[in-house]
Amino acid sequence: MLHPSSRFKFTPDLEICRILNGMWQVSGAHGYIEPDRGVSEMFRYHEAGFTTWDLADHYGPAEDFIGEFRSRFGARFGRGRLAEMQAFTKWVPHPGPMTREVVERAIDISRKRMGVDSLDLLQFHWWDYEDERYLTALGHLADLQREGQIKHLALTNFEYAASKDDCRTRNPHRLQSSAVLDGRSPAGRADGRVLPATRHHSPHLRHRSRRSALREISRKAGTATR
Questions:
Q1: SS3 of 204, please?
Q2: Long-range contacts from 142-149, C-beta under 8 angstroms, 24+ separation
């Protein structure tokens, strides 16, 4: 079992393992996966203390694996212990119309696949910042969060400028929780502004990667928490 120091209070109401189990490996790009064996192996990770899973809607059957794991885990240990695990999924839509119906349908699919009423953490990614409909999508996601379909809302691989200028000031809705910010410029070079900003606003987060960083965004006025 992992040492207690392996736990991290990510938000006031969300404690996670400092090391996340990435599920990109089940996307299909790394060879054949035996679903039954894969889900069975998830118990070994959980029992060892690795209780936090990172996945996405486009990681093949990853969300289905979480749903099946939760079903088996609840049957074996009781549904009360399901709170021991955390599953962070992502929504990566193709740029296009972002109506309430489009956004809610995507979230409904993830919730059903994962067997949850509310997603622990939804990470949102957008490919084209020239298409500002991502702001509309964020507004609908914030509404769904307030309605209880999403517990924590985040950004993943967003350029620093887009997250700072658009999501914090131009978008009237509020993000809470954490955002994974892309540290690369459009030309693919590391952007030296990301980590200094991250460390300034959230000194307790010590991600050293030059490509990405973690930053908390508060519920109030979209300003970063200190």
A1: coil
A2: 142/173, 142/174, 142/175, 143/100, 143/173, 144/103, 144/104, 144/107, 145/176, 148/117, 148/118, 149/104, 149/107, 149/108, 149/111, 149/117, 149/118, 149/119
Q: Are strands 7-11 and 14-17 parallel, antiparallel or unpaired?
A: antiparallel
The tokens for 105 are 């349908």
Q: pLDDT of 77-133, one tens digit each?
A: 999 999 999 999 999 999 999 999 999 999 999 999 999 999 999 999 998 888 989
Amino acid at 121: L
Q: List, in sequence order, the alpha helices (H) in the chain.
A: 35-48, 62-77, 100-114, 133-146, 160-161, 194-201
pTM of the predicted structure, to 2 decimals = 0.77
Residue type, 105: R
